[in-house]
Amino acid sequence: MAREPTFSEILTLAVADLQEHGFTDAERLEYWTLKLKEAAERSMGSQAQMEQILREGLTAVYKRLVENGGVAKYHGGIDRFTIERLNAQMRLELDKRILASADLIKLNREKAIAQTLSRFSGWATSIPAGGSDTVNRTEEKGRIKKALSSQPFEVRRVLIDQGHKLTASINEVIALNGDAIALRWRSHWRQPGYNYREDHKERDGVVYLIKGSWALDAGLIKPGPGGYYENITAVAQEPFCRCWAHWLYNLRDLPPECLTKKGADNLAEARAKVAAL
Q: 165, 169, 175: which is closest to 57 by C-alpha?
């Protein structure tokens, strides 16, 4: 079976043809546009291949967190039994994230192809009938296929971002079902080269209470300077956010300003009992 021409090969032929003859009629443009579209779709691989890459990448994140115990980093004082009890819910988060990622990749592919064809069409229709000797073929080809060339990078970006979102979702399932009372925001703003959000940098180390927690209902805690977690964007919610949360379950993990008098007395009493033992 003869090898199908690559996108770059088709684009080279199309640019050469238009440079020589110019925009003579709609049929010439339609012919090359169709050829470029077919070649672009081939060069990107099938949707099934992209989904398989996503599935393998996100499943690896899931295994690291759930099966290999990586979630312990994000939770202070939660038992293994609670985590195992939530396996079904965490698996559901994995499946949801795979579907969402596949849809996003599909939209990005379609957008890149449309943008590529639009650039080609815009350039082709600018060439006068009879052709032009002023065309820089290398420069035009690079400009036309720019969106297509960035697709492997875009797929990696989506996979990394969705991996962070999956991590956040799994940890939230554990925290809310494990009776977390608060969280401490963690940002990577100190990491060289990381394009952090300024407001996320300001959240670094701040404690946010969880609405409806047992400690809040019992009158043991109160909002500190951070307030409630539900009143801000969640960790990893915004595009390419790499922030994470350290979930808190005990009064002793909270700063003094988050304890009511009742909570402070309760904690002091508990510490006295431990000291006596």
A: 165
Helix 87-124 vs helix 137-144: angle between axes, to the nearest 10 degrees? 150
C-alpha 165/C-alpha 162 separation (Å) is: 5
Closest by CA to 121, choosing from 6, 40, 14, 43, is 14
Q: Tokens 């939209």 — which residue?
A: 107
Beta bridge partners of 183: 208, 247
Q: How far is CA 52 from CA 98, 121, 220, in A?
A: 9, 33, 48
CB 124 within 8 A of CB 32: yes
Cα 198 from chain centroid (whole Å): 19
- pTM score: 0.80
DSSP output for 216-235: HHTT-B---TT-BGGGSPPT
Give pLDDT tens digits for 266-276.
Answer: 989 888 888 88
